[in-house]
Design brief:
Layout (H helix, E strand, L loop, with lengths): L1 H22 L5 E13 L2 E12 L5 H18 L11 H18 L8 E11 L3 E11 L6 E10 L15 H5 L24 E4 L3 E6 L12 E6 H4 L15 E2 L2
Parallel strand pairs: 1-9, 2-3
Antiparallel strand pairs: 1-2, 3-4, 4-5, 6-7, 7-8
């Protein structure tokens, strides 16, 4: 009996070691990809530029899910296709943007202006559990002015799924009270139940956690975004996901 218990004990240790080894964090490999195309005519230069870090790991299905989702998010920013799912590559996306401009300029020659789309995706933070990407974009497709902004994408590295606000905060009600001294329009952010609404976006950096808000009193006259910056140590107890820094360098693949 003692021998059996001993063998079971050793077996559990071996299984635990294997599981621990499986969870050992490894560095991600990124390849910076650049896509660019232009059309020049008498009204100027229509151009589209996309810079994006693509994760390189052909044997990891989670990586593929993340890469495809980043492409989808960028497609939603600049594509004019009715069916966005048809865009399955960045090359196809830039061709689609230029084709949309060509079709518009031929249909409305009197309203012809050069179009512009610039997207820069950057890795702002990652550890063994999450990956944070920032999209910095500018688009102009006619009209009085273009659209400029930033968008955050946060991924679960175990599943590849995007993490939303409900999966980030463990106690939003308590954390939101810390905003009172940081936003002049704090009270105006409350809903009908007196709760502060989630931020417009969340950016995770190496040492800081940034939430963005728009003053509801000024919208839609301005879409100016205000950033509220916290050190991670200030808000870690209110966060569900692991935002701790690990020694995982961002490695560039050749």
């Amino acid at each position: 009996m003692k021998k059996i218990l001993y063998l079971l004990f050793i077996g559990m240790i071996l299984i635990g070691c294997k599981e621990e080894k499986k969870e050992t964090p490894t560095a991600l490999f990124f390849k910076d990809k650049h896509y660019e195309a232009t059309i020049q005519n008498e009204v100027g230069t229509t151009e589209v530029k996309i810079n994006v870090p693509v994760i390189v790991d052909e044997n990891n299905p989670v990586v593929q899910v993340i890469n495809e989702h980043i492409l989808k998010e960028i497609t939603e920013l600049i594509s004019f296709e009715n069916d966005l799912d048809e865009t399955n590559s960045y090359d196809k996306l830039i061709k689609s943007f230029l084709q949309a401009y060509t079709d518009f300029s031929q249909q409305f020659p009197d309203d012809d202006l050069a179009w512009n789309a610039k997207i820069k995706a950057s890795t702002t933070f990652y550890n063994a559990n999450i990956l944070a990407i920032e999209l910095d974009y500018y688009t102009f497709a006619g009209g009085a002015h273009g659209f400029k902004g930033k968008k955050s994408l946060i991924y679960d590295l175990k599943s590849g799924k995007e993490i939303d606000e409900d999966d980030i905060f463990s106690d939003w009600d308590s954390l939101s009270k810390l905003l009172a001294d940081k936003l002049d329009y704090y009270e105006d952010l409350k809903d009908n139940q007196g709760k502060i609404e989630y931020p417009e976006d969340i950016f995770i950096l190496e040492d800081t956690f940034i939430m963005t808000f728009i003053n509801p009193n000024n919208y839609p006259f301005t879409d100016k975004v205000d950033e509220v910056v916290f050190n991670k140590s200030e808000i870690d107890s209110f966060i569900v996901i692991d935002i701790s820094k690990k020694d995982l360098p961002i490695r560039q693949s050749n």
